Amino acid sequence: MGTFDWPIQLDSMNGTKTLHLEALVDTGAGYTIVPSELLHELGVEATGEVELVLADGHRAVYAMGEARATIDGRSIPTIVVFGENHAKPLLGAYTLEGLRLVVDPANLTLVPLPYATA
Questions:
Q1: Could you state, in order of their start, the residue ranges of all structural domains in the chain?
Q2: Does domain 5-112 match CATH 3.20.20.150?
Q3: pLDDT digit string, tens, across residues 78-118
Q4: What is the pTM of this model?
Q5: Which residues on adjacent β-strands are paired with residue 6?
Q6: Rounded-to-5 percentages of helix, strand, coil across the chain
Q7: Going by DSSP bridges, is the β-strand pair 90-91/18-25 parallel, antiparallel, or unpaired?
Q8: In 3-state terms, what secondary structure has residue 37?
Q9: Nearest CA-CA partner of 54 in 29, 37, 26
Q10: CB within 8 A of 61, min separation 6: which ones?
């Protein structure tokens, strides 16, 4: 599958601050990862840590918190990981699944999940 960028809006959980980002859609990433400095500006507080396996195979521990994600009119609270400053934001599978969006690999777009199973 090719990679592509997609606009995402992140809001603080209290709704007072908003970020508009272009994030790399990365279904191989479990969580949405945003540069720490942007999450701090948004007012996201770290609520825990997560150990991630990076693309090069190394493991690293990152802080994580919560923000409200909105894409194409769909909105949910989601986990966000405090990434490296100046790194490109990544839109991960956890957020995509919560928003009920899937990748259309032929057209490199996000589309609504056509059905949900119980």
A1: 5-112
A2: no
A3: 999 999 999 999 999 999 999 999 999 899 999 998 765 55
A4: 0.91
A5: 23
A6: 10, 50, 40
A7: parallel
A8: helix
A9: 29
A10: 49, 50, 51, 52
